[in-house]
Write a structure and sequence with these properties.
Elements: E1 2-4, E2 13-17, E3 23-26, E4 40-44, E5 51-55, E6 72-75, E7 82-84, E8 86-89, E9 92-97, E10 103-107, H1 114-124, E11 130-137, E12 143-149, E13 157-163, H2 171-183, H3 189-197, E14 198-203, H4 208-213, H5 238-250, E15 254-261, E16 268-270, H6 280-296, H7 319-327, E17 330-337, H8 353-370
Parallel strand pairs: 3-5, 13-14, 13-15, 15-17
Antiparallel strand pairs: 1-4, 2-3, 4-10, 5-9, 6-7, 6-10, 8-9, 11-12, 12-14, 16-17
Amino acid sequence: MHITQNFDGGNIVVLSADKPDAISLEIRKDSNSDFYQWFYFRLCGVQDQDCVMTIDNAQGAAFAGGWEDYQVRASYDREDWFLVPTRYKGGKLIIEHRPQHGSVYYAYFAPYSMERHADLIAQTQMHVDVSASVLGQTLDGQDMDVLTIGQGGSDKKHMWVIARQHPGEIMAEWWIEGFLARLLDDDDPTARVLRERCVFHIVPNMNPDGSKRGNLRTNASGANLNREWGVATIERSPEVLLVMQAMAKTGVDFCLDVHGDEALPYNFIAGAEGVPNFTKKDQTLLDGFQDAYKRFSPDFQTKVGYGVTPAGKANLTMATNYIADVHKCLSMTLEMPFKDNADLPDPDYGWSPERSARLGADVLGAILSVVDDL
């Protein structure tokens, strides 16, 4: 029996593994941080044996409430990720599975590797309307990729979409895949109209270092990037600083920051209602976007989400709030579940890469519904 995690995005610590039905594990903390919750590891040599894997430090994870009613993802081929029996008891996460093959992977959510990210950038740039560029480098020396779709013009809106500030929120980059696939579909009338009216600036992965290191929430220095806006430095959070500088050059008419939520089994938007000088027009745009998203995707809803921040009380070091305040634009955070969509559950796969991508594709109709009013 072998348990390994020494690969892109891997994270697990083996405490003991003497028998398949008594495997004791821990999740490694994020780099230079006390955050942890993301895990991803490979188990070999236990085909057709009943395995019980216990994550002993689950109670101390960043969002322990996220373990309730949660099920681990597993895969034999690293393409098809299915749910396996999981329970949270006594502060420990217990995974029970009988592998059908000699090698099986387990993860908090279906992983999105830096190699797949590189493929996404390389393949997307082949479209005639796409330009791929690098804003700079991360602390680990990885590239900060941005895709620009469309040609600039004085009458065009500048639309920013960023994802994976928190690297363990993997569903965000799966969402980006679906969004890009539809936006670049030359036979899709909604996509064609949006590309005529707008220039899109897309950062599919805001946190390459955290992604590769197997972090849940931080970059290489231990910075939570969604608390670095307006205060970012090249030494601590170059990822945010580089994007802030790029936004200052282009301006921002619309921004969507794509995330995942550990606890809530729903897709929802968190707006910028708490920023200073949030106007009635801002509220109308926010409401209109959400109402349209519901029409285009039954997976999106507005009944359950975060509480609205009181006027003037927004944390301006968060991306959505900083961008809304500085650029006076429609700025929002999209949250997707690690668990499942409670409104439309899938007992075999839960919330999945495929459903994340579909939600990304469906957002185009919602953007088109507000673009003329931005």
